[in-house]
């Protein structure tokens, strides 16, 4: 089952695929992606590039600025569009594989550009 959350007011998008097929995960090479963990917490975040995350453990609610809350958890594949600004609520400790668009140089450039206000 796929759930798509669109925030049309800010032209942002978060897509949650609940329990994607193993063949889909294999095609994306998810097992080779780096991992990241976060304790139960609340924080704001801006996605400077598209991110795809496969949730290994945990449960979260992310609320895009001006949008509706989106809930996801263990076994979900979540795509965050470039430019999404959101508030995270980590309900159960999060452990995820993730993949960012671009390479390390382009990712650093986007973050520096954002920090300088461009």
Describe the model.
It is a single chain. The chain is α+β, with helices and mostly antiparallel strands and 118 residues long. It has a single domain, classed as Jelly Rolls. 16% of the residues lie in helices and 53% in strands. The chain is built from two helices and eight strands, in the order ββαββββββα. Strands 1, 2, 3, 4, 5, 6, 7 and 8 form an eight-stranded antiparallel sheet that branches. A hairpin with a 4-residue loop joins β1 (2-7) and β2 (12-18). The protein is globular, with a radius of gyration of 14 Å. The model is unreliable at 1-11 (pLDDT under 50).
Query: Number of helical runs?
Result: 2
Which architecture name does CATH use? Sandwich
| Nearest-integer average pLDDT | 86
Shape: globular
Q: Would you identify the CATH H-level superfamily? A: Jelly Rolls
Which segments are poorly predicted (pLDDT under 50) over 5 or more consecutive residues?
A: 1-11
Instruction: Write the element-wise H/E pattern from the N-terminal end onward.
Output: EEHEEEEEEH
How many angstroms separate the termini?
39 Å
Q: In the residues, how many domains can be counted? A: 1
Largest sheet: 8 strands, antiparallel
Strand content: over 45%
**Quaternary status of these chains?**
single chain
CATH C-level label: Mainly Beta
Provide a quick synopsis of the model.
This protein is α+β, with helices and mostly antiparallel strands and 118 residues long. The protein has 2 helices and 8 strands, in the order E-E-H-E-E-E-E-E-E-H. Mean pLDDT is 86; it is low at 1-11.
